[in-house]
């Protein structure tokens, strides 16, 4: 039986000069995790790796206090796969959640999601296959499981940048092979932000290839004003316009805004998603779910969310997970979701391994076992320093 012999976590700074409508990133951190097994291949132990999503903080305290000790105290038979060599990520997830009370979805969800991601990465390596292939086998439904639509997320507010810089940024994304884009909105007065939006549309030529991300920065006072100001553009979607738990306000916006609305980035569980579908007024054939897989208890919980959505008339194509790194990319491809977000200008999250490529708005994933996170230029040095 495969045994997990060690789990290493390191908190990494994500400090930058960027901000959105709600927060700046000057103090942001993230956790990098290495899960070491007793499986030896080519003279080295097989490892699973994981890295946090962007936009929250690292989870080192919870991991070291509770979840890493719980994982290492377990016996291999408690998480062994019943039908093939290696570990069963579903059983491992249940072990992590033992003696955890219902509710409280937030920082705990991110800590568990990290270990879940490392377990899936490890199991894919044990089976010597990329994660997208493992997910497609376990949860069939994707027509092209190694390939997914991808869009470039950027357009943050920077004190030194103006509209010319924003247009250059988007032009650079087009040159990289992207055909859909998302920029920040709601962080300036409406008239100033509309100039940014107009400039990007002028650059890309089609408003249907542009989404706006409000990062929950609008309120009952200005949300309707803002959506009325942009409803004539025929945008791809507007994302997270308001506080994610204000279902009444969101339902009112869905009832009045003619285009697509995306939300879910800051809801962290099956239960949160169920409440959103019950009370948020979202339209299954029009709107989008942007649940962050890593921050929402990981892939095991996400498969339950996909089942919930199917039961409520939603297609997988309506799911475009938040967070532009490889875990979401493999999930988007392997599950057959509606797309994948990436941040090309981010020094950590915007990188892909050399066996991946972007062409005509699609990401083609490679054949390297696991997620390939440790083979990206932004994370290679971080994981190399942690690997024993």
Structure write-up:
- The protein has 388 residues and is of the alpha/beta class.
- It folds into two domains: 125 residues, Enolase-like, domain 1; 244 residues, Enolase-like C-terminal domain (TIM Barrel, Alpha-Beta Barrel).
- The chain is 35% helix and 16% strand.
- The chain has twelve helices and twelve strands.
- Strands 4, 5, 6, 7, 8, 9, 10, 11 and 12 form a nine-stranded mixed sheet that branches.
- A hairpin with a 2-residue loop joins β11 and β12.
- α5 runs parallel beside α6 and α9 packs parallel to α10.
- The radius of gyration is 20 Å and the shape is globular.
- The two termini are 21 Å apart.
Give me the secondary-structure topology:
Blueprint: E1 4-13, E2 29-41, E3 44-51, H1 60-73, H2 89-96, H3 107-126, H4 131-138, E4 147-154, H5 163-175, E5 181-184, H6 190-204, E6 210-213, H7 223-230, E7 237-239, H8 247-256, E8 261-263, H9 270-279, E9 288-289, H10 298-311, H11 326-335, E10 340-342, E11 357-359, E12 362-364, H12 380-386
Parallel strand pairs: 4-5, 4-10, 5-6, 6-7, 7-8, 8-9
Antiparallel strand pairs: 1-2, 2-3, 4-12, 11-12
């Amino acid at each position: 039986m495969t045994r997990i012999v060690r789990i290493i976590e390191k908190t990494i700074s994500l400090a930058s000069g960027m901000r959105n409508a709600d927060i700046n990133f000057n103090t942001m951190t993230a956790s990098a995790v290495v899960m070491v097994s007793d499986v030896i291949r080519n003279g080295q132990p097989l490892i699973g790796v994981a890295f946090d999503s962007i936009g929250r903080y690292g989870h080192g305290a919870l991991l070291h206090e509770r979840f890493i000790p719980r994982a290492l105290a377990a016996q291999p038979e408690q998480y062994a796969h019943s039908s093939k060599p290696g570990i069963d990520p579903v059983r491992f997830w249940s072990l992590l959640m033992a003696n955890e009370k219902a509710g409280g979805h937030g920082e705990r969800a991110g800590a568990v999601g990290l270990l879940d991601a490392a377990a899936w990465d490890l199991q894919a390596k044990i089976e010597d296959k990329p994660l997208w292939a493992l997910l497609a086998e376990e949860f069939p439904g994707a027509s092209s499981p190694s390939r997914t639509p991808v869009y470039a997320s950027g357009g943050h507010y920077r004190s030194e940048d103006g509209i010319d810089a924003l247009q250059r940024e988007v032009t650079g994304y087009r040159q990289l092979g992207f055909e859909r884009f998302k920029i920040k909105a709601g962080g300036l007065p409406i008239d100033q932000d509309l100039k940014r939006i107009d400039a990007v549309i002028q650059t890309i030529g089609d408003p249907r290839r542009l989404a706006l991300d409000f990062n929950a920065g609008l309120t009952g006072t200005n949300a309707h004003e803002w959506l009325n100001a942009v409803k004539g553009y025929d945008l791809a979607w507007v994302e997270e316009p308001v506080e994610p738990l204000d279902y009444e306000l969101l339902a009112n916006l869905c009832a009045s805004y003619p285009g697509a609305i995306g939300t879910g980035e800051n809801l962290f569980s099956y239960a949160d998603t169920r409440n959103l579908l019950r009370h948020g007024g979202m339209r299954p054939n029009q709107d989008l779910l942007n649940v962050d897989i890593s921050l929402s208890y990981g892939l095991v919980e996400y498969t339950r969310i996909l089942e919930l959505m199917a039961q409520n008339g939603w297609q997988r194509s309506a799911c475009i997970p938040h967070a532009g790194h490889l875990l979401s990319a493999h999930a988007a491809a392997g599950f057959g979701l509606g797309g994948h977000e990436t941040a090309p200008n981010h020094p950590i999250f915007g990188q892909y391994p050399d066996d991946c490529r972007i062409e005509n708005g699609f990401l083609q994933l490679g054949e390297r076992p696991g997620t390939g996170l440790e083979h990206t230029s932004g994370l290679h040095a971080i994981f190399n320093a942690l690997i024993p």
